[in-house]
Each structure stands twice: as structure tokens, then as C-alpha cells.
What we know:
Largest sheet: 8 strands, parallel, barrel
Radius of gyration: 33 Å
Number of strands: 44
Amino acid sequence: MTAPLAQRRLLLLFSLLLFLTLLLANAVQEEALAVGSEPAQPVAGGKAPYPGIYVFLDNGNVDPARYPWVTGGNMIFRWHDIEPADDFWDWSEVDQWLEAQSRLGKPTGIGFTLYDGRCCGGLRIPRWLTWQDPTTVARCGSLQWAIPRYDHPLVLAEYREYIREFARRYDGDPRLTWIELGTGIFGESKPADNSDWQCLLDAGMTEQVWFDTVKTIIDYYVDAFKHTPVLYQYAPVYNPVSQSITTRRWLTDYAAERGLGLKHNGLQPEHESAVIDDLTKSYAGAGHYDPMNKWWRDVPIAWESYGTQYCGNPLNTTINPHLTMWCIYNGLDKHPDYFVFSADLVTDPLRQEMLEFADAYLGAEVGETDSVWVALRGSAAGQWFPQKGNFSFWLYQNDAAPGGRSVAVRDKTSAPEGMYTRRTDRASGNPNLFFDVDNAWLYRNSSRTVRVEVIYLDEGADTWSLYYDGQDGVSQLAGVVQKTNSGQWRTRIFDLADAYFGDRLPGGGGRAGSDFYIASNDADDFIHRVRVFKSGVAATPTPPPIVTATPAASPSPPAEPIWVRLRQGVDGYNGVEDTWIGYGCGNGDPNTPHGSDATLAMRADGNNNDVCNSLYRFDLSFIPPGSRVLTARLVVKGVSQSNAARLYFNAYDLYKPWDAATATWYQAGTGLLWDAPGADGAGDHPLLPVDIGIFSGPAEYWGWAGAYITPLAQRWVDQPYSNLGLLLRTHGNPVTWEVAASEYAQSRFRPALEIRYFLPSGGATATPTRTATPTVTPTPTATPTPTLTATPTATPSPTATVTATPTPTATPTPTETPTATPSPTATITPTPTPGVGHVEGWVYHDADENALFDAAETGIADVRILLTAAGGDEDAQMTDASGYFRFADLAPGVYMLAQEAPAGWSEPTPTGRVALLISANHTHQVLFAHQPLPTATPTPTPTATPSPTPQPHLLWLPLYSH
């Protein structure tokens, strides 16, 4: 039997009495931490707050009223979204998600990520770090794929500031139950994909450097979070084929000794390298389960899993309850507090029974659970350090008891219970199965009623019996079960009014005795699970309801940025030029221009015999020079693909002017050749891309790709003559993506440039004339090449990207013929157009949640809409019976359109605040989508009013969704 926890508490109490003045702050800990450790956030009474099942990436806000086994939600936030510019903090995404969760009465767990691998988006550190210092990332392969240099002093300094700022705002927030510590790929303790190990080694990221860096990051979290528990995500290691597996033990010990919890993001029915119990190995104790087995009594423990990856069929998306059952048994065996499961897993009705089972035991302590259990299983032959034996929850089946050695069997039946099981072995003189409850749960019982539940295989027509240690005898008969050979797994319940359970039945193998046993009377019996209940257990107290907190104010610029989305033909903007240039794509002629094509072909091929790149240019002359560009992101949409492969691309600044009507694989325009075919020469673009993008499919549902180009947009605003556009140079898999061009029929799929910027201090808002950028047509004799200078541009978001510096005689300007001196005002500065504009729109019930006002959907009446001009003048209207509103005859300029959620409806999607650039002779349309709020929540509570949080204004264009 395990030693009762009461003994540990007595030892701790004795120590506290001797050293009260030194240890008073730790008096509420269940067990003392290692000498010299300092807990980051003590857990009162040793119990983790709000244990249960949390929904992984809970974008859909899964409702516990519908799925009562769900406790909370989980979300991962990206550093580059929260700090898009240095020291500019945008908490709106976090606040909105926390508020949505708290309305459902759900506690939350939040994670951070710095890098999401080649599959899933790559870099998550702010791009401004890489533009400020290119050595903050390692560049891998010909794609120049960027991976964070986690040990870089600038990365560590800025990350520490980010962690501190997040903690200052949210540490102790009652809506927030735990924080996932973010180190490497997907926030876990591994820097990158296995294929990038050599690249990282070449960049100086050795195993020792990684180990030291992770310890440093752990220290940052310990220093920052004093109230909200932090979970260290430990499962992967730097390189599992090397000695670095040992770092799993070292780092989990380091984290747990400092009070951090442990989280494994790969719950499966079983693992190899799970329990490394060979003490002759240097990596003993460094298995997947070893840290949990060592530390579950002291710190919070969590698992993560997904319905189609680990707890489903790994080869396809087939639902597999077999794996779910054994995932849950395996997870609960480690006494965790939290399961973080994907939405497809927690909302699947076929898994409901096991999810309810899990919910009953997560976070349970031995003194408060009303039941204990053991699921009988065995590991497969030949596995490397598997977990041997059963999955147990304070109930143990003892193979060492005389006559009780069992045989493990796999795939006995097609039912989940038969995936693993154990049987008696009468042939070897072992007809019984012995069971022992933990003495800390029940020992020498005199007053409690006990119930024993046995799930067995009804195979054969023989019988089996249950005997127990009773108050009137050591081996009392509880009952005999007659099997009927149905081939089904059946449950038999025995109620024992006089159970003693004093370890008086045979024991062995370190166990003093047993409390009951199953006797196979005639033939061997197969047992799936045994569970024991006891009476007199008080119900677990209901945790206090989640209350909305008021986040601490964060430093922010005094003004709010303007957010615009520029797309050809939308809201009067007509400043986009684009084309594609290719060699061999679809047997196309490399000398053919494609400036009028509705789609842009993009293809990569390793042998360069079949390559297509695309070119883009956006007119930004309406933004006043001196404006500060916070972020600028190109967004493009793939509308079809030749196969399912991803397509990567580098986004480059262009050095040469080009003409969409005449640009080809070989020339930028008539008479002006590229330095190398495909605009791929040293005189065509700098060495380093400004960003990397990925197309991934299927295009029918996804297909969006983006690239941050903030330093280029800043330069184009300050120096309009330098705006020669972008090259998207393809790389990687041999796949063709057709990408929507500015001529594409569906406007919401056309390329867009999304910009957040501040106007110059005291400056007026410019209103552009929406005309296309002048076409550049070089003369046949003039083929100048810009002088290349590697000096970063002097902007608020500096860049080390090589830029084109015009020279007095050799650089073409964006006029119809090159001139000696660039003149940004001669042909580019727009002239305001006289006239007025209009705004109209609808507030409606988005029943199908597709962000489109469909014919079958209804408007919402009597909603107040407020329009505020840049000068402060306001106008308000109420929506009519159809949800319609209209503001007419508006002077061109920047306006704010705002709407509050009507009673009984959700906050508007995507936002209730819209920044509009009103242009003359144009009607702007805006949609505010809502869903009805739930009629009731599990724990309705008053919500405190959050402090105002500066949020960027959003320009939401109708019929756009991605």
C-alpha cells in the first residue's frame, strides 16, 4: 500500500513548527518543494484550480450547457499578434476571447507560441525583430526558412518584456486558470522540426545552448506569474536519437522544483520510451511518463490530445472509440488535473461515456474521490521501455500474489474493452486475480458501504466468483456469476455492507496484502476493468463562479491606429497592379505577359523548368508621408491547386520598375530586362526576403496566404517614388496554385493589403483619388540598375533588408519615361475629388455564421449606429425593421462607424467599430453580424466592467471571409 498522505502532512507540520519564521509562506503546500526552490505560484492545499476537460483552441466557444463534461476552454495566442510593433500592445483578441468564455461560465487556459513549424505557419515572433536584426532568426535551406534564434539576446530580452507585460495584465485574473509556458515549436521543449536540426546546429543552437535557453525562459515565467499556475510543456526533446532525452528529466525537475506544472501534448493509448526504469541508463527517469509519475503529488499535471491524431485512427479521420477509451485510462493513471482535448473529440457523442468518466476523476485527490479503479492491460512484446502493466487509479491488481499471476492479451475482441485485457491462468496454477485498494482511500473499514463493479467478457458457460476481506471473515463470498457465452463485455455489481479491506488477503511484490479477488471457478476469465465505490464521501465543492476581471492597464500609444484593407474595385480603391511571370507553367510561353489575367499562376519546381512567380504593386500615396505604419500585410487567395501540396513563397522588395501589361519571365517591361530570368537576379531583389508565406489547402476551404511587408510599406509612404512593388518567388513542392488577381470576379478574393497606421502628429487625413498607379514604360535604350545599399531604412520599424537607393541619373521613376531626379509630387500625389460619399449597411442575425447577409436571414431593428467624423462631429441613427441604416452626403475623409450589441445578441462580428475611408461618389456598405446569446449559462454571474483597452479600428468589407 502507498503511505497515507496524512503522514507527509505530519512531517511537514513538524518542519513548519521548527522553522516557522522561514517557512510560513509555504504552510499551505501539501508537500515541501526541493531545497532552495521557490514556487512561482503556490496552489492552495496542493489542489489545482478548476480541474477538468478544456477544449483545445476553443474558437467555437463550446458550451458546457450542451456538453456538461466540459469545464473550460484553451487558446494559444501568438506574440506577433499581441505586439505587432515594438511596445505597441493589442490585447483585443485576448480580451474578446476571455469574455466569450466567461459568458459561458468557463475558466480558461492560455498558451503562447514562438514558432509553429513548416506545416503550420512558421514564425510567430514579431517580424519587427527580424527586420531590426536579421540574426534573430536562423535561415534554413534555399527557401531561407526562418526559425527563431531562441538564445539571441534581443529575442530573449523582448520575450521577457512580453511575458512580464502579459503577466502584469492577466496574472491572477479569475477567468484564467493556467498558462502554458512557450519555448520552442508549438510552445513545446523542442526548437524546430527534426529536418531542421542541422540548420540550427550550424546556427549555434547546440543541445547545451537549448537546455540553458529553456531554463532561462522558465525563470522568466517564474518571475512574472505569481498567482496563475504555469504549465511547462515538456514532451518532445531537442533530438531523441541523442543523449538529449536526458534533458527531459533535467528540465522537468527544474520546472517542477520551481513550482511549475507539467503538460504532455501527446496523450495516446500507449507510448514507447514511456517509463525508463533501467537505472543503469543515463537517461533513466526521462521517459514520457516519468516526470508525471514523479511530480503529480506536488504540481498541476495536464495532457493534450486530439480526436483524429492521437485518440482516433492515426491513418485517417475515422472515429475510434477504442483509442479514446484507452487514452483516457492512460491519462488518468498519472493523476492529472487537466485534459486539453480538441473540439471534435469532446463533442463526439460516441465518446461521451468515456468523457464523463474522465470528468469524474480529473483533479481528484485520494481523500475526496468516491471511487477507485484499475483497467487491466499489458504492453506489447518488443516495445522500448513501455509502461508495463495496468492503468490504475488507487486500485491495484497484484500479479505477485500467490496464485494470482495474470496473462495480458491484446485485441481479444473488436469492442474497445478488448483492445487490451488480462485473464486468469489456470494452466499455470494461477486461477485468481487479486486487488488491493490504496490504504489512503479505505483501510480497516467499519462503517462505509462498498460497491465493487466488474466488467468481464461473457465468454463460455462457466462461472466466476468474487471474494473479499470482510468484517466477519478474511475470504467472504460476495457472489457467483454465471456466464452465458454471449461474447459481450458485461458489468456485474456487488454491494458489500461489511467490507473491511484490511490487507488480510495474500499480497506480494511490495504490497502487504489484498482486499478482494476474482476466482475463476471452471475456466479462465477475461477482465476489462474493476471499480470500487465507497459511501460517505462528501460531494466535491462547486468551484466559485468565473467572474470577469478588470485587466491592468497596459502602456499604449495615446492614439488609436487606422486600419484599412486595400483591394481593387472595393470601396473605390483602384490602385493595384499585378501579373505573373513564368517559364513552362502549363506549357505557357515565357515571353507572354499576363497583366490582364483573372488568376495568377504560381508554381515551384526543383529543376527550375516549371516556375511561376507573381508581382504586386499597391498605391499608398493617400497615406500622408510621416505616418507611422504599424503593420502591413499582403493577403492573397489561392482559388485552385493542381495537387494537395503546400506552396511556399518568399516576398521580396523589387529593385526594378515593371509594367504589368508587358512584364514577362525575361523582362520587367518593354526594353528593360530582369537581371536574371524570373526577376531573380541581384539587381532585381535583395538577398533576404521580407517575409515567407504558405499556400495550403484545400483551396475550396482554405488557400489564404499572407506576408508581412511593414518596412516596405513604411518606405513607400515616406518615399512614394521607391514603391516598385513586390515579387512573390515560389519555392518547394511541384504544385501549381491559381491565385486570384485584381481582375478576379469575386472581389473578396482579390489581393489585399491590410495596413494599420498612425497619422502624423497634427496631420490631416489624406483622401486619395482612386486611380491606378501610372504605368512604367522604359525606353529601349535605358536599362538602368539601381545602386544597392544595405542600409536599413530609418522608420519606426527598421529593416536590414537591402533597399534600392535612387541615384540622380540611373534610377527610373514611376513616370512614363525616366527622369534625372525623382519627383514624388509630379505624378503620384493624388488630387482630392470633389463630391460626397455615403455609408449604408445592415445589422442582422447571421444564422449560418458565414459572415454573409443571406436572403433567408433577418435584420435586427432599433440598433443605434453612431458615425463619428475625424473632427469629432457625430451623427446617430437607429436601424429600421429590416436592420438597415444609411448616412448620406458625407465629406470625403476618415470616419468611425460604431455599433453596440443589442440586448440578447452577441457582440458584432467581426467588430463593432469600423474605420472607413469615405471617398467621393461612392456608397460604402458595412455589415454587422450577430448571433443570439444562450438563454442560460451553467453559472450566471455578474460581470465587472473591464477597463478601456485601446483597439485598432477595423475596416470590414461585406462579403469577405477568411
